[in-house]
């Protein structure tokens, strides 16, 4: 079965510190794509970062980086130097094999404290 | 440029009423998706269009749900005889090309449907 697990319903981090949001997955596909999205209270899903299953280097986009450990089937999002505007719901999502749709995890609510 | 636009932003329907939710994707985007997001959950896939063709409707929860995209641009999600369990946020997303491994989706703000 193809499944995505985000075990942290809520996380708190102090402003300017780094935080790691966990994501593990289960699939027998060799080819897949990993995405992270941010959903502020306004409701819009904002694309943050992508990692392909065959990419050897961990993806980075500004303050976002992806800690991809293929053997452990984990793709954790690291946010460095947290800002108050980072407070939002964060979703791990995957495109499995030849599927066109993204499958989403249940999300982690991140709160950045001043 | 303009992003994905959804209307109405909020919709309240009495149980049993029909509703129609509209999605205006980013101009020229080929691929269009509908997702249903229950409160506190991740989005769940409903259906996918490539241009005007509905290539996958495996996520539609019942035959009360119907989606169309007749000219390959604007899409409408219709729910007939609404029930309380249909209460959710309905998200539309588009992508500029046919879907490949790396094809991030661009989402709208969603329509929050409340069935009373």
Q: In angstroms, what separates the terminal alpha carbons of chain A?
A: 41 Å
- Helix-strand makeup class of chain B: mainly beta
Helices of chain A, by number, come to 0
**If interface size is counted as residues with C-beta under 8 Å from the partner's C-beta, which chains form the largest one?**
A-B, 24 and 28 residues
Low-pLDDT residue spans of chain B: none
Mean pLDDT rating of chain B: 94
Mean pLDDT of chain A: 94
| First-last Cα distance of chain B | 37 Å
Structural class category of chain A: mainly beta
Instruction: Name the overall outline of chain B.
Output: globular
Report the total helices of chain B.
0
- Quaternary state of this entry equals heterodimer
Shape of chain A: globular
Number of strands of chain A: 12
Bin the strand percentage of chain B: over 45%
Low-pLDDT residue spans of chain A = none
Give a written overview of the molecule:
The complex is a heterodimer of chains A (114) and B (116). Chain A has 114 residues and is mostly beta strands. In chain A, β8 and β9 (74-79) form a beta hairpin. The mean pLDDT of chain A is 94. Helices cover 0% and strands 53% of the residues of chain A. Chain A has strands spanning 3-5, 10-14, 19-21, 24-26, 32-39, 46-52, 60-61, 64-69, 74-79, 88-96, 103-104, 108-113. Chain A contains no helices and twelve strands. Chain A is globular and about 40 Å long. Chain B is mainly β and 116 residues long. Helix content of chain B is 0%, strand content 47%. Chain B has no helices and eleven strands. Chain B has strands at residues 5-7, 10-13, 19-24, 31-37, 44-50, 53-56, 65-68, 75-79, 88-95, 106-107, 111-115. In chain B, strands 2, 4, 5, 6, 9, 10 and 11 form a seven-stranded mixed β-sheet that branches. In chain B, strands 1-3-8-7 form a four-stranded antiparallel β-sheet, with no helix packed on it. In chain B, a hairpin with a 2-residue loop joins β5 (44-50) and β6 (53-56). Chain B is globular. Chain B starts with a strand and ends with a strand. The model of chain B has no long low-confidence stretch (mean pLDDT 94). Chains A and B meet through β5, β6, β10 and β11 of A and β5, β9 and β10 of B.
């Amino acid at each position: 079965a193809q499944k995505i697990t985000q075990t942290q319903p809520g996380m708190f981090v102090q402003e300017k510190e780094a935080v790691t949001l966990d994501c593990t997955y289960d699939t027998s596909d060799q080819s897949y794509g990993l995405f992270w999205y941010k959903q502020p209270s306004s409701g819009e899903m904002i694309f943050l970062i992508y990692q392909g299953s065959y990419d050897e280097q961990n993806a980075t986009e500004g303050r976002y980086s992806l800690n991809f450990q293929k053997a452990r089937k984990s793709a954790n999002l690291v946010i460095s130097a947290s800002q108050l505007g980072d407070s939002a719901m964060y979703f791990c999502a995957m495109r499995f094999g030849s599927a066109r749709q993204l499958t989403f995890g249940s999300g982690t609510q991140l709160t950045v404290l001043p | 440029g303009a992003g994905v636009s959804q209307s109405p932003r909020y919709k309240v329907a009495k149980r049993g009423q029909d509703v129609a939710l509209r999605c205006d994707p980013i101009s020229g985007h080929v691929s269009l998706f509908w997702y249903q997001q229950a409160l506190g959950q991740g989005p769940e896939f409903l259906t996918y269009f490539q241009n005007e063709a509905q290539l996958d409707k495996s996520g539609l929860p019942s035959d009360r749900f119907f989606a169309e995209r007749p000219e390959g641009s604007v899409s409408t999600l219709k729910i007939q005889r609404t029930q309380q369990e249909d209460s959710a946020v309905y998200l539309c997303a588009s992508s500029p090309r046919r879907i490949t491994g790396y094809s991030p989706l661009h989402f709208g703000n969603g329509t929050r449907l409340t069935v009373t």
